[in-house]
Fold:
Amino acid sequence: MYFNVFIYNMFGASPSQISFMVGASSVVATLTTIFIGALSDKLGKRKVFISGGYMLWGVSILLFAFVRKDFIGGIFTTVTSVSALCVTITIILDCLMTFFGSTANDACFNAWLTDVTEEKSRGAAEGVNSMMPLMAILVVFGGFMSFDLSRPTSWTAIFIIIGAVVFVIGLLSVFLVQETPVKKEDNKNYFKNIIYGFRPSTIKQNPVLYLTILAFAVFGISIQVFMPYLIIYYEVALAMENYVFIMAPAIVIAGAVTAVYGRYYDKVGFIKSVIPALICLAVGYIVLALFTNVILVFIGSLFMMTGYLTGMAVFGAMMRDKTPIGKAGSFQGLRIVGQVLIPGIIGPMLGAWVLADAEVMVGSDGTESFIPNQSIFWTALVVAVITIAVTFVVHALIKKEKKLN
Structure:
């Protein structure tokens, strides 16, 4: 979310450029997770990838501190558009950062979490895990709310602080994360592990898992239609300079609900927990699409965030429950296909498409910037309704599977 704000504020990035950056990062995340996840299965180790990946992730974030027009322009003096070059460099560095981040988190931490949890507790664990990203956003909001995001020096400081924090977390994980042995007897052939999750025979053996991944992908598309533009929408379209005071309480409440909601999944199962989450998400979209009043925007944001987080928890727990034992690393690639690749390409493209004719404002330096509008929420709502339909298909398959067993 903040990278999108960064290239929007600093370099006047267009919706298509933001969409391309999210899409490119999604492709890198998916390929990294597929290859590194399978490698961690083969080696029977997760911790080295988690700790080393986090430290390198932190270093890659620090590199963004040098992406400034004055610095880049001083090096490439013959370039016609320094802003366009900075956008390109940001996208390249984002892909590098994604490689290290996906190695550490998407491929190996997620596989480790599957290894150390049991089916009866996965909902509770996933509830806590799913609320962490938005709790992190809350920390960023609170920590950097005094920064002027229209100034390059503010971004330099932000990248240095976040990069250092991520590096230190990787360093601490060396001492805090306990390695969990992975069964290696079925994981000797690395390349077989890579294609294992994509084999027709594997799909036939795990139909509920694959259909759940498909439903998760549709859910993710709904989120990614608006999420890349959300902060810009609050700050520019609604002129809410203090949007932090809208987002922060919504995130705190949504996070608290999600931490408890994972246990609800453990008790009632998939369909009874996923439908309320999706309805909550849809209500949030409708309120955000219809109203611009501060109180109503807060209410809409609260419903949207709660539906988003609880939905993530339910889908995450369901996929962990259906992942074959000893193949958690290999299946993280499939998880990322549903969570990142498909949503990260299609969602922002839909968002950019509906914002193609959005109103444009011209800055003091002559740079044009688009103004997001409520169409992103209406589009996200349509995709959310499709998600509900797909989840009922998953439920029907679960019932059929139980009858056969």
Observations:
- The beta strands are 360-362, 368-370.
